[in-house]
């Protein structure tokens, strides 16, 4: 029997000694490693401005703080995503307005965006679902037409490109996650990106209390003024040290993910009871976070039996995500969304199994997962 965990961070001696080196010194924040990680990251994504932040969620929140939105304002949010996409709007007092997703990609339904825009709308947030880029030309056209800001939740989109442009630089701003099982990790952490210099300059201060002068720019140490209600959303040097090393591995990670994704799709090809979400390609360069197998109606109500069957055969799985965000209790109760239907998001949430294509796995593992899924499906019928 194979052991196939859904996610596992890949940490080597390089990361371990980089952390020890930070701990052997005295500079734990405001140091050179966060700067280096930012420079290397913008090099990898091909330009723009990058700022380390405490998490992807912190980066998304800063986008809305930058915009100055609050009660009475609205932001379009896809129904099928991590709750952070909506929470980051909710923190400001503005209202997330949920739009269903496309059944074949899991990405926000762009016709649905247009229908949801109101005079109160201030921004559109998109999620490159599990690493598959959204059709951003269409989103940007809508945004220009209605004078809206475009926020990319790029938590799972490191390596995703749309028409050759990396996620996080296609809309106005983006935010990446370095949570342990994402494409690369810093334990906790994120990267805020933007193609606008003025947004980058303000967010750099918003993530650090709103200081007018950063450490290093101060004429007298400790002397500064504060002209913004900033947060403490910085990344520390220990995390940044891990990030610098992880980023060196990202090319290899992405190649492995693409190979695993292709191998797993092939292994699932002749299983009639499952259909995979879109594979990307062409203008839509997929970052292959994981592969979502949507179960046929005939077996969908056996999902937990299938998940448990796979687990007993050593195959770890996950669910992306546990339900449409508007149907999670907080949003369901606050905005009375229980009866509003998001059929495509609900189908992906409730009828699918997420299978790993992570770089800790190889082609043999993918063939094994395909065989085990067949075996489990055969047994439950
Ligand atoms: C993981 C995830 C987040 C949250 O990232 P953190 O770094 O943990 O804040 C946000 N959005 C999506 C789509 C995610 O998958």
Automatic annotation (TrEMBL):
Chain positions with N6-(pyridoxal phosphate)lysine modification: 182
Entry's Gene Ontology molecular function annotations: pyridoxal phosphate binding; transaminase activity
Superkingdom of origin organism: Bacteria
InterPro entries: DegT/StrS_aminotransferase, PyrdxlP-dep_Trfase, PyrdxlP-dep_Trfase_major, PyrdxlP-dep_Trfase_small
Pfam family, one: DegT_DnrJ_EryC1
Active site: residue positions: 182
UniProt KW keywords: Aminotransferase, Pyridoxal phosphate, Transferase
GO biological process: polysaccharide biosynthetic process
Family of the protein in this entry: Belongs to the DegT/DnrJ/EryC1 family.
Protein name stated in the entry: DegT/DnrJ/EryC1/StrS aminotransferase family protein
Source organism per UniProt: Candidatus Propionivibrio aalborgensis
């Amino acid at each position: 029997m194979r052991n196939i965990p859904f996610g596992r961070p890949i940490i080597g001696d390089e990361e371990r000694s980089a952390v020890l080196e930070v701990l052997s010194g005295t500079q734990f924040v405001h140091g050179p490693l966060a700067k280096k990680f930012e420079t290397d990251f913008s090099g990898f994504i091909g330009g723009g401005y990058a700022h380390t932040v405490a998490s992807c969620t912190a980066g998304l929140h800063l986008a809305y703080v930058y915009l100055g939105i609050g009660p009475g304002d609205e932001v379009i949010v896809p129904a099928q995503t991590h709750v952070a996409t909506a929470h980051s709007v909710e923190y400001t007092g503005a209202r997330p307005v949920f739009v269903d997703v496309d059944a074949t990609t899991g990405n926000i339904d762009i016709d649905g965006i247009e229908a949801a825009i109101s005079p109160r709308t201030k921004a559109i947030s998109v999620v490159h679902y599990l690493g598959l880029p959204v059709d951003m030309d269409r989103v940007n056209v809508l945004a220009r037409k209605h004078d809206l800001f475009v926020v990319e939740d790029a938590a799972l989109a490191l390596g995703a490109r749309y028409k050759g442009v990396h996620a996080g630089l296609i809309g106005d701003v983006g935010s990446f996650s370095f949570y342990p099982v994402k494409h690369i990790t810093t334990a906790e952490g994120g990267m805020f990106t933007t193609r606008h210099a003025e947004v980058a300059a303000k967010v750099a201060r918003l993530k650090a209390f709103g200081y007018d002068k950063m450490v290093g720019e101060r004429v007298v140490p400790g002397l500064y003024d504060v002209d913004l209600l900033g947060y403490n959303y910085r990344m520390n040097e220990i995390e940044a040290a891990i990030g610098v090393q992880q980023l060196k591995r990202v090319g290899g990670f992405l190649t492995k993910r693409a190979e695993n994704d292709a191998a797993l799709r092939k292994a699932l090809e002749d299983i009639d009871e499952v259909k995979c979400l879109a594979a990307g390609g062409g203008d839509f360069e997929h970052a292959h976070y994981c592969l979502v197998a949507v179960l046929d109606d005939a077996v969908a109500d056996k999902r937990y039996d299938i998940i448990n069957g796979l687990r007993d055969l050593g195959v770890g799985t996950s669910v992306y995500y546990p339900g449409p965000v508007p149907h999670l209790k907080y949003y369901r109760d606050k905005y009375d969304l229980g009866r509003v239907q998001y059929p495509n998001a609900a189908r992906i949430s409730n009828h699918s199994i997420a299978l790993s294509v992570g770089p800790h796995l190889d082609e043999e593992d993918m063939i094994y997962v395909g065989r085990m899924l067949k075996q489990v499906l055969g047994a439950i019928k």
